[in-house]
Every structure is written in structure tokens, then in C-alpha cells.
């Protein structure tokens, strides 16, 4: 069985930077990670083993007991940042620069009088961080969520890991349902997301199936799986080599391999080696 790796896969620079910052934290037992540093179970196990405390993402409103709080790559709102600092917490910030850019874009649109529409997953930690600083907003997961809005100025941004192919149908629906509104779009989809989606698209015609490595809750990983299935190519989402099932590849001459942006290099290599053994 031939294994073909995607041209772009695995860790993006934002996650690498976040992991590097966490690796250099002294006395991790005195630091609470404000949620999941990244959505990758293997990374979380390693951080727990080092002694970091970790607040569940759904409980981030609770004030941590530790003196230091590590802000995850997904970022937090300015309001949350002020709340933590006013409580005397020292922040260790690993927010991805491209997530920061999405925050600034949303706030700039709001300041110019636009009603902000965020294309993304409602409740996702990155989306929550963006909208908590906005007086008014709507989060749109699909074209079915679009409605007529009261504002005549609509500003649109995206969760950074939104698949580019998902955006145009939503924009069309916004324009159709709000024909008299001014619609301003700020492209906040991150380049690593684009690169990994495009690399998978190139693979689809060359493989009989595709293995996607990444955390079970990783948005960009799940979107890679969805892209394959939309094109009729079987896709298998695994977190590690242990999740592979030989029967999946019984009739496969070529299998593609890709990984989400929070997947460790070692994990990818382990899965690759396991596929070659099959």
C-alpha cells in the first residue's frame, strides 16, 4: 500500500509557538491553563503530566486558584483579560497572532457601526473570545442560520479555522436576505487552514482513502475529514496510530495522510509508520 503525505500538514506556527511558551514555564504547578492549550488530547496529557492545572473550557468563568493563568492559543476576550488581571493574576499569553487579528477585525467593524457576523462554530472557545467584546453580533454556522438583520451595515469575519469553501454560500445568503445592506467582509481565515485544505484537495484524486490525524475536538481536523467525505473519498479521523484499523485499507492501493494544525510531529510519524507496516 502506497502512503502519500499531504504537502502541508500538522502543526502550524501558532501552535508551535504556544507549545514552546508552555515548555518554558517554570513551576507549572503554579499555573492554570485557561481551557485546553490546543485541541489535542496527546498535548493535554503531556501538560497534565508536567503538573499544570487546567480549567475546563466550560468553566473558564471561575477564577483560578493559582497566581498565574496561561491563555490558550484560541485567545480570550479583552473583558476576560481585564477580569483576570484585576484579580491579580499574571497572564502567560499564547494567543495565536492570527486569532488576535480576528479580534481586532471584529472590534474595528463594530467601532465603524457595523453589526458583526462571525462565521464559525457557536460556542467554540475562539468564537467566544471574539464575541465577548462585542455589544451586538450573530454567529453563523451555515447558510441556514442567516436571517434578515436590522442593521444596514453588516461586517463579516470568520473563525480562523473556517474552511474557505463554507464561506461563499453563507455570504450569498447574507446578501440575498439583506439586499439593501452594505456588506463588508474581512478575511480572517488563517493561511495554515487554507494550506491544509488545499493540500487535501490535491490528494483526493490520487488516493483510495485518507487518514486525518488530530484531536477529536479539533475544528480544523474535523473540517479536513468533512472535505474528503464531500468528495466521496473515505476519511478516517484518528488521534494516534493505535486508532488505525487494518480492515479500513483492505482494498486500498494508495492512502493519503494529513493532520490538523495541533497534531504533534511525532504522532504523524507514528501513524505514517503504522500505515507502512499495514
Can you describe this structure?
The mean pLDDT is 95. The chain folds into 3 domains: 2-9 and 191-277, 3-Layer(aba) Sandwich (Cobalt-precorrin-4 Transmethylase, domain 1), CATH 3.40.1010; 13-97, 3-Layer(aba) Sandwich (Rossmann fold), CATH 3.40.50.11270; 98-185, 4-hydroxy-3-methylbut-2-enyl diphosphate reductase, catalytic domain (Cobalt-precorrin-4 Transmethylase, domain 1, 3-Layer(aba) Sandwich). Helix 4 (97-111) runs parallel beside helix 5 (125-131) and helix 7 packs parallel to helix 8 (219-230). It has 9 helices and 12 strands. Strand 6, helix 5 (125-131) and strand 7 (137-140) form a beta-alpha-beta unit. With 278 residues, it is α/β, with parallel strands linked by helices.
Features:
Cobalt-precorrin-4 Transmethylase, domain 1; 278 residues; four-stranded parallel sheet; single chain; alpha/beta; 19% strand
The CATH homologous superfamily of the largest domain is named: 4-hydroxy-3-methylbut-2-enyl diphosphate reductase, catalytic domain
Poorly predicted parts: none
Cα Rg: 20 Å
Structural class: alpha/beta
What portion of residues belong to β-strands? 15-25%
Counting structural domains, the number is 3
- Write down the overall mean pLDDT: 95
Spatial strand sequence of the major β-sheet:
1-12-10-11
**Biggest sheet, open or closed, and with what strands and sense?**
4 strands, parallel
The ordered string of helix (H) and strand (E) elements is EHEHEEHEHEHEEHEHEHEEH
CATH class of the largest domain: Alpha Beta
Shape-level CATH architecture of the largest domain = 3-Layer(aba) Sandwich
Instruction: State the helix count.
Output: 9
How many strands appear in the DSSP assignment? 12
Amino acid at each position: 500500500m502506497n502512503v502519500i503525505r499531504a504537502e502541508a500538514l500538522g502543526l502550524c506556527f501558532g501552535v508551535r509557538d504556544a507549545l514552546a511558551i508552555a515548555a518554558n514555564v517554570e513551576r507549572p504547578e503554579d499555573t492554570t491553563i485557561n481551557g485546553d492549550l490546543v485541541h489535542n488530547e496527546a498535548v493535554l496529557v503531556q501538560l497534565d503530566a508536567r503538573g499544570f492545572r487546567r480549567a475546563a473550557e466550560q468553566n473558564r468563568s471561575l477564577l483560578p486558584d493559582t497566581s498565574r493563568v496561561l491563555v490558550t492559543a484560541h485567545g480570550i476576550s479583552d473583558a476576560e483579560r481585564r477580569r483576570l488581571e484585576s484579580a491579580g493574576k499574571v497572564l502567560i499569553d499564547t494567543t495565536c497572532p492570527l486569532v488576535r487579528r480576528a479580534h481586532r477585525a471584529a472590534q474595528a467593524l463594530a467601532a465603524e457601526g457595523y453589526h458583526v457576523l462571525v462565521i464559525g462554530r457557536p460556542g467554540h472557545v475562539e468564537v467566544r473570545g471574539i464575541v465577548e467584546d462585542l455589544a451586538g453580533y450573530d454567529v453563523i454556522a451555515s447558510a441556514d442560520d442567516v436571517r434578515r438583520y436590522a442593521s444596514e451595515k453588516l461586517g463579516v469575519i470568520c473563525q480562523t479555522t473556517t474552511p474557505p469553501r463554507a464561506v461563499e454560500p453563507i455570504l450569498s445568503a447574507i446578501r440575498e436576505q439583506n439586499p439593501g445592506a452594505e456588506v463588508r467582509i474581512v478575511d480572517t481565515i488563517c493561511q495554515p487552514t487554507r494550506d491544509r485544505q488545499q493540500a487535501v484537495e490535491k490528494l483526493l484524486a490520487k488516493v483510495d482513502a485518507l487518514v486525518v490525524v488530530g484531536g477529536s475536538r479539533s475544528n480544523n481536523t474535523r473540517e479536513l475529514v468533512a472535505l474528503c467525505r464531500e468528495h466521496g473519498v473515505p476519511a478516517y479521523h484518528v488521534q494516534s496510530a493505535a486508532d488505525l484499523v487494518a480492515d479500513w485499507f483492505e482494498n486500498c492501493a494508495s492512502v493519503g495522510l494529513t493532520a490538523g494544525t495541533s497534531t504533534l510531529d511525532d504522532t504523524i510519524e507514528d501513524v505514517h509508520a503504522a500505515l507502512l507496516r499495514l
